[in-house]
Write a structure and sequence with these properties.
The protein is built from 15 helices and ten strands. The chain is of the alpha/beta class. Helix 1 links the parallel strand 1 and strand 2. Pfam families: Glyco_transf_8 (PF01501).
Length: 316
């Protein structure tokens, strides 16, 4: 099974958790191609040693950062590494006919052999509906709807790029890295979800789908829908943590995140991850600031209400 992911040094621990979960549940060996621009020989040695027992073979694929325009949108959510997969046709071995792209912020909870061996039926990508199925056009912004007006007129379902089975044999014949660069230029780099928008825009006529609730379950969406940790552990293959992460503290936590920690416990860096989480929990003041701002807003609203009631009494 060929797997692709992209990362920087900061994301090594979380990618390790994802690949560990994949190896633990896979019935066959995994060749993992890690697209990067800064991993060292020591990083490679560490990852190989940590994953060898789980049948995951690591292949580092160096990416030239200078190939990417400074115009590409970047922020805390969209690092430069998120664009590295757009070079997959140019940097992966030619003998790889299919591969499964997986984001690093997920855990693999079941064997993915059935997904990996699916018949493409001349499609380029097999993926899942975005936003845990809440991917209607009304849920996106004006730029998104401008980009996908024609697609939506044809009943298109916008997919999440965190889980993609890629028909590389077919796609190499039709596209290159330049295809995506030209698409960015065509939209003047003004995308709401940069590389995901471009992947959808380029390939929208050639996408097939699998069940998002099984193969790309958004953990927070599941939690707000009343789905429990026990149900997810029993019934879901891939659990995705977009946005707020289980290892971060600037957000509220919930039961399904325990599954991520279950697999983190299987890695040699579990203690390090745990200590980092605890340190963050006692030093991060994001929740405190949020509660103070909420309290201030409530006080302001209470003052306005009192002023309004006073005026009403004057009138009466």
């Amino acid at each position: 099974m060929n797997v692709i992911t992209a990362l920087n040094r900061k994301y090594i621990p979380y990618t390790l958790v994802m690949l560990t979960s994949l190896g633990i549940n896979s019935k066959e060996s995994v060749d993992a191609y890690l697209l990067h621009s800064e991993l060292t020989g020591e990083d490679e040695k560490f990852l190989k040693g940590a994953l060898e027992e789980h049948g995951v073979n690591i292949h580092l694929v160096a990416i030239d950062r200078s190939m990417f325009s400074d115009k590409l949108p970047r922020n805390e959510q969209w690092s430069l590494e998120t664009y590295f997969r757009l070079m997959m046709f140019d940097v992966l071995p030619d003998n790889i006919s299919r591969a499964l792209y997986l984001d690093g912020d997920m855990v693999i909870n079941k064997d993915l052999t059935d997904l990996y061996n699916m018949d493409f039926a001349d499609k380029e990508i097999i993926a899942c509906d975005d936003k845990g199925g809440f991917n209607q056009k009304e849920g996106y912004g004006p730029k998104h709807n401008e980009m996908f007006r024609e697609a939506y007129e044809h009943g298109y379902r916008y997919f999440n790029a965190g889980v993609m089975l890629l028909n590389l044999e077919l796609m190499r014949k039709r596209y290159s890295f330049k295809t995506y660069l030209d698409a960015f230029e065509a939209w003047d780099y003004q995308m709401e979800a940069p590389d995901q928008d471009i992947l959808n825009w380029v390939h929208w006529k050639n996408v097939d789908y699998v069940d998002f609730a099984y193969y790309d379950l958004f953990a927070r969406v599941a939690h707000t829908s009343g789905i429990t940790y026990e149900e997810v552990k029993k019934d879901v293959a891939i659990v995705h943590f977009p946005g707020a992460k289980p290892w971060e503290n600037a957000n509220y936590h919930f039961g399904i995140e325990k599954l991520w920690w279950d697999y983190a416990k299987k890695t040699p860096i579990y203690q390090e991850l745990l200590e980092s989480f605890v340190e963050s929990a006692v030093t991060d003041n994001s929740i405190e600031l949020f509660m103070r701002n909420l309290d201030e807003k409530n006080r302001t609203q209470a003052d306005l209400l009192q002023q309004l009631m006073a005026k009403v009494k004057e009138i009466m």
